[in-house]
Fold this protein.
Amino acid sequence: MTAQDPFASFKAVQKEAWSLFTPMEVFTTPTAAKLVGFAGVAAGQRLLDVGCGTGVVAITAARRGAKVRGLDLSPVLIERAREHAQLVNLDVDFVDGDAESLPYGDNEFDVVLSQFGHMFAPRPDVAIGEMLRVLKPGGTIAFSTWPPHLYVGRMFAMIGRHLPPPEGVASPVLWGDPKIVAERLAGKAKDLSFEMDMMTPSALSPQHFRRTMESTIGPLDQARRPVQGRAGQAQELPCRVRGADLGVFRRRPQRDAPAVPDDEGKEGVRRREVRIPHSFRSFTRLTQARTSVSTAGSTALTSSTVMPGLMRGS
């Protein structure tokens, strides 16, 4: 990110917002293993984790014997990732940086992964261009994202309506639409295919899970804050956020537990642990994609996931 970057201010806000994400690593660790497995990571491969967060994908890959580097916009998350690596004596090079300007040479990596990371770069063409640039001919790109029509996708759409991004910033959940992914990889990849999986984080109740989301998902936290010049919306938005979340959860009560009154005094929320379906395109299902990528005349495989996605570069 440089002074000439037209989205420098937007990225500065993102950097602060995503510093809250650390507690969510409990939920993203199992999916990290799925992504690493989906990409077929093997010992000795040089691997880059873009938007690595607290390092769950990078460390999982390093434990398979890959030579790993990780990059994230948030220095707070990078520090956490370093702590995780030190705890298990793994040599992983974590740095803070921008997915739209990767500080690596051309054709440097055998594998490039991203779990819910590159999707938040404001310019998809720039981010995927950088990921392909650092990938060796015949290498693999794999990524996980959320479907726009499911819970997480709808949540980010709601945030976008109340906190519109600057002009030119693409919606992150478009990376969860197989048609959009295919369009973005047109001419760069072939034989693209997708798979979906499910993420089932646990919580004591829908209310507990909602609070976790509101306090750890940076854009959602920002949407709940009173904003100057939006009098009337400052108090209204948190209620809408809560209603949107609980509206999803109440439709899936746990059947083997006694019902208890919800916030409105109606029966429908069950006591005991509530397992909340997520889509990787949206906290409920994950999508995986595979493709052959062709760059400078070479072929490669690619996978995009609307959960785990995979792509082999040329």
Notes: The first helix runs from residue 8 to 17.
